[in-house]
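note to self: dont lose this again. the chain is below, predicted strucutre after it. 259 aa total, dont forget to put it in the shared folder this time
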Amino acid sequence: PLYGTNTQYQFAFSKGNINLNHQGKNLIQFVNARLNQQPLGYIETYVDFSKPVKTVNAYLQPDCQNCLATFKFSHKELQSAVNFSGKNFPMAQLIALLNFPNTLTGYADFNIQLALTNSELTKGEFYFDAKNGEILGLNLLDMAAQYLPINYNSDLTASRNMNTPYERLESRLSFENHLFKVDKINLKTTALLADGSGAIDLDNVQCDVNLTLRSTNEKYKKLVLPIRFFDSCYSPQYKVNIDQNFRHQLKELIKEKLK
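---
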């Protein structure tokens, strides 16, 4: 399991083929494969258990345009390593495969490296570079417009729904000593830029993330709004930190406009 008590995974396919090699390098193919109800399309897998280091290399071709993924697994004694990477992969599908909270859509380039001891995850590094999707259950535009001079209109908010459309979302996460950390978040929307870091409790689906928001308008980029998001990852609460620094920035901006 990646975390918690997840010990069972459902794998299904409509057609398969096994080509055994006397040198230990075997080819296994799956058509219309599904893992935990998530479609993976065609999978071509090369398995070699003839050496002390056992390896599995799989190449995935999901049913989406210009997307692909590779899965590499190696195992020796009690130690295992996993590398899962892909290009232009559907973010919602990837999140479901990883058992992460369902909070993002879009398409992502990604790279995931995991280290396991006795099949238990001990260390992990996760990198995602997602484009043209939405952050679900959180409308940053609505929130920021109360404090920042952003280019805010009904077109940007898509009838003021509860999601945040984004152009690009880049994040780097790490797992070690049973802690899951959000080391970096960079977000770009039509009207907002954001960056930050935090932590996620995957077992209880709790998020604690600090972001700083600023307008994409060059005139107002110096005005930075710090916000803390906490509680449920699906519908987080938030606290805007209107501190002395923010008030000073706002005063300076007003003075500049009055000149």
